[in-house]
């Protein structure tokens, strides 16, 4: 008798970590830096952002921004600084005015192949008692960017009219001795 093969699925992995935005220019004058982004930054005056990749290093760090246009903002910096800055410069949203991370949206990190691995009855009981709400597990090729707290959108291959399920990745564990694969421990969440 042949072995029943596990279902091969596709997961769209989402992260709430903001993407880095390329900066085309950083200039310093009278204690303020003017930053120009390649694409609209979406910041509001008072937000905090992290500037990286600029030389000299006086341009870099976590700063509070004053927005002047959809692609420009200014921030305070001790100088004098050589102007303009050079390097592969980026800016990444860090927090809102109050130090929270309001307004962040989930964005797609990657779509990956996954092997659905249903939990056995004893695993459901054991894990349920310890973690609460663990629904399923997927085996995926190892990636350095997968972590607990991400979301996965799962559209099951069977049945054909399945609706997408939103899962919270509760844990990421190595699978096997060669660490070529990871196990994603997931639970379904309401959107």
List keywords for this structure.
191 residues; mainly beta; Thrombin, subunit H; Elongation Factor Tu (Ef-tu), domain 3; seven-stranded antiparallel beta sheet
How would you describe what is shown here?
The chain has two domains: 92 residues, Beta Barrel (Thrombin, subunit H); 75 residues, Elongation Factor Tu (Ef-tu), domain 3 (Beta Barrel). Helices cover 5% and strands 45% of the residues. β4 and β5 form a beta hairpin. The protein has a seven-stranded antiparallel beta sheet, with no helix packed on it. The protein starts with 7 loop residues before the first strand and ends with a strand. It has 191 residues and is mainly beta. The chain has one helix and 13 strands, in the order βββββββββαββββ.
Biggest sheet: strands, sense, closure?
7 strands, antiparallel
Q: Could you spell the SSE succession in H and E letters?
A: EEEEEEEEEHEEEE
Classify the secondary structure makeup into a structural class: mainly beta
- What is the overall pLDDT average? 86
Low-confidence stretches: 1-5
CATH class of the largest domain: Mainly Beta
Q: Quickly give the CATH architecture of the largest domain.
A: Beta Barrel
| Global outline | elongated
- The CATH topology of the largest domain, please? Thrombin, subunit H
Report the portion of residues in β strands: over 45%
Number of helices: 1
Radius of gyration: 22 Å
The largest beta-sheet arranges its strands as: 5-4-8-2-3-7-6
Distance between the termini: 42 Å
Helical proportion?
under 10%
């Amino acid at each position: 008798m042949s072995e029943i093969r596990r279902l091969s699925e596709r997961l769209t992995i989402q992260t709430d970590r903001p993407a880095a935005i390329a900066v085309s220019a950083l200039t310093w004058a009278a204690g303020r830096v003017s930053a120009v982004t390649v694409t609209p930054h979406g910041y509001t005056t008072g937000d905090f952002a992290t500037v990286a990749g600029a030389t000299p290093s006086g341009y870099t760090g976590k700063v509070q921004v004053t927005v002047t246009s959809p692609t420009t903002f200014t921030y305070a910096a001790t100088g004098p600084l050589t102007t303009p800055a050079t390097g592969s410069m980026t800016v990444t949203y860090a927090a809102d005015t109050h130090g929270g991370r309001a307004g962040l949206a989930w964005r797609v990190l990657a779509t990956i192949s996954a092997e659905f691995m249903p939990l056995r009855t004893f695993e459901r009981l054991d894990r349920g008692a310890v973690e609460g709400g663990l629904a399923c597990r997927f085996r995926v090729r190892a990636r350095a960017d997968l972590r607990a707290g991400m979301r996965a959108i799962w559209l099951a291959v069977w049945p054909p009219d399945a609706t997408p399920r939103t899962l919270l990745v509760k844990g990421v564990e190595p699978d096997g001795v060669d660490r070529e694969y990871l196990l994603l421990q997931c639970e379904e969440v309401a959107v």
